[in-house]
Design goal:
Blueprint lengths: L5 H14 L3 E5 L3 H14 L3 E6 H7 L4 H16 L6 E8 L4 H10 L5 E4 L6 H15 L5 E6 L4 E3 L2 E3 L7 H11 L3 E4 L17 H13 L6 E3 L7 H9 L2 E6 L1 H17 L1 H4 L7 E2 L4 E2 L8 H4 L1 H23 L9
Parallel strand pairs: 1-2, 1-10, 2-3, 3-4, 4-5, 5-8, 8-9, 9-10
Antiparallel strand pairs: 6-7, 11-12
Helix pairs in contact: 2-13, 3-4, 4-5, 7-8, 10-13
Bound molecules: glyceraldehyde-3-phosphate (G3H) and zinc ion.
Length: about 325
């Protein structure tokens, strides 16, 4: 299946809304997470939504976000061609200042299935105007647009919010009506970054109310949950039952990556680092005053990379079970 566009993604969301499941929206910035996430979705026969934030694109592009986006998308494109499941790309948390430099070329070059414009830190009218503009830009390309109303606490890709502002259901109806967004990101108590779900005051009732009010106004939309890392299975399921169709996960993957790497290198320390106090030159491979060499069977980055991919696959499969998208691919 080639990497697919907004029309097909809308069909996946329509099925999710009808059948009461959600897609994981999986952030990645490098290939080990991407490969693990892809493998999990293929194994579970779930369509996969990959997310690239501006920060991730900038990282992948050595400081140039558009170059990084092009590189990551061409990698995804090549992998997607080997898969039976549907593969989609969302541009995550794009800020208003990057509309011309990031969103416009991404639309023109077919680099995404959907885009999130994040003007949630702006006053309501400004958020509406900016979101409207992106919707107008995206329409001719059939790319879906996600807008956000309310504010999620925490830090995500340099966007910092010290406080949470819960989404107001009436404002949500007005926002969707006036902007025509395809997906609505809501703030119902989740946080970006490391936060234990059990300690959060989640407003499932609010998500439900927003969903009901949108339905009553003839504006039903898939709701989007940001800051979903750390939630329990019960919390995720309750929110999916309340109308959430997109569950964003970034921090979980970052942590699993780091934990796998830390565990691996701590266990293999003596194969990678010389004994304490022994200088080792990585160009000449000479250890001063000792007979020691590093072990290529261990330090080849592909060895750790495979462990990371497997760990990411395991955790992604568990989270696919939480959102219920397994076995529901429109294509596989
Ligand atoms: O946009 C990305 C997500 O909202 C990430 O949330 O930090 O809880 O994984 P997370
Ligand atoms: Zn987010």
């Amino acid at each position: 299946m080639p990497f697919l566009g907004g029309k097909e993604l809308a069909q996946v969301y329509a099925k999710a809304k009808r059948e009461g499941f959600a897609l994981l929206a999986n952030n990645f910035a490098e290939t080990n997470v991407l490969l693990g996430v892809m493998a999990a979705h293929a194994a579970k026969r779930s369509d996969v939504l990959l997310q690239i934030s501006q920060g991730a694109a900038k990282f992948a592009g050595g400081g140039n976000a558009l170059a990084g986006l092009r590189a990551l998308v061409s990698y995804v494109r090549a992998l997607a061609a080997t898969q039976k499941i549907g593969v989609f790309i969302n541009l995550d948390h794009v800020t208003p200042d990057a509309i011309d430099s990031f969103i416009v070329p991404a639309l023109q070059e077919g680099l995404c299935s959907s885009v999130m414009i994040d003007a949630s830190d702006r006053p309501f009218e400004e958020n509406v105007a900016i979101t409207q503009k992106v919707v107008e830009l995206a329409r001719p390309y059939g790319v879906l647009v996600e807008g956000e109303l309310g504010r999620i606490k925490g830090v995500e890709e340099g966007i910092v919010s010290d406080e949470a502002f819960y989404t107001d259901p009436d404002e949500a109806v007005e926002y969707v009506a006036r902007t025509g967004v395809d997906l609505l990101a809501i703030s119902v108590g989740t946080q970006h970054g490391v936060s234990a779900g059990r300690e959060l005051k989640l407003r499932v009732d609010l998500a439900k109310k927003i969903d009901e009010k949108l339905k009553a106004a003839g504006l039903e939309r898939p709701l989007v949950l940001h800051g979903a890392s750390g939630l329990t299975t019960d919390q995720v399921r309750a929110l999916v039952a309340a109308g959430v169709c997109k569950v964003n996960k970034d921090t979980t993957y970052q942590y699993v990556y780091a934990r796998t790497a830390a565990t691996f290198y701590i266990a293999q320390r003596a194969e990678v680092l010389p004994p304490d106090g022994v200088p080792f030159d990585p160009i000449t491979f000479e250890a001063q005053g000792a007979r020691w060499s590093p072990n290529k069977k261990v330090f080849d980055p592909r060895v750790l990379g495979k462990e990371i991919q497997a760990a990411i696959q395991r955790v992604a499969e568990e989270m696919i079970d939480q959102v219920g998208s397994g076995g529901r691919s429109l294509y596989a």
